[in-house]
Design goal:
Layout (H helix, E strand, L loop, with lengths): L3 E2 L14 H10 L3 E2 L4 E2 L9 H12 L7 E2 L7 H16 L21
Parallel strand pairs: 1-2, 3-4
Helix pairs in contact: 2-3
């Protein structure tokens, strides 16, 4: 039974900002551990391209010892596919490694807002 969850749009977004605390509480009550991200490639932007995605990730990860990077996988995201190998190579040069999220992975979550 899966118990790892990522909210579409993140745990706090424009659609759920008035009820996000209740959604998070219910998700947790049901036994799910949820994950947000702390670096975004901004590849959902309609003007995203190789350079913008690369720059968002490499600047966003700067100074973070641990990162969960948000990138999208779809037919429309050609730039994401083309930049991915170069990002992996660059981040590995900087000492980062890559792994899957498991139950042992410490969650990265957005900070609560008022």
């Amino acid at each position: 039974k899966p118990n790892i969850f990522r909210f579409p749009g993140g745990s706090i977004n424009n659609y759920d900002k008035s009820i996000y605390q209740q959604l998070i509480a219910e998700t947790t009550r049901r036994g799910f551990v949820y994950y947000d991200w702390n670096v975004s490639g901004e590849d959902a932007d309609e003007n995203a391209n190789w350079t913008s995605i690369y720059n968002h990730v490499t600047k966003g990860i700067d100074g973070k010892g641990r990162a969960i990077i948000l990138l999208h996988d779809s037919d429309e995201k050609d730039s994401t596919v083309t930049v991915l190998e170069d990002l992996i190579i660059e981040l590995q040069k900087e000492g980062y490694s890559f792994d899957k999220i498991t139950n042992e992975t410490k969650p990265t979550t957005f900070e609560y807002i008022n």
